[in-house]
Predict the 3D structure of the following.
Amino acid sequence: QVQLVESGGGLVQAGGSLRLSCAASGRTFSKSAMGWFRQALGKDREFVAVISWGGGSTYYADSVKGRFTIARDNAKNTVYLQMNSLKPEDTAVYYCAADGSGSAYLGSHESEYDYWGQGTQITVSS
């Protein structure tokens, strides 16, 4: 079992930066690929980024590539999402998720993740 709690959301102007954190509890965190997803109002939840359990591999959605960086600190059981050059279209509820399978595969689909946080709102004003 993995429990996830996101923090760091808020309101920011376009062009600004925010860093989200996702604190995990549960002994399988260090062996879980961790992902970030987001859901804008009235839209489906979409993939943002994923990081391997060791932190050596990452994968990003095209819409955030070059602006967002995913990282993790297994000693602190925390995964981060550094978001720079934010745009109004980045406004959404952001969720972190854990792949409990222990697979090395970096999934980009919701169905590939077993545990989810409650989400944190990011609002980017123009």
About this structure: The chain has a mean pLDDT of 94. The chain has no helices and eleven strands. The radius of gyration is 13 Å. The first strand starts at residue 3 and ends at 7.
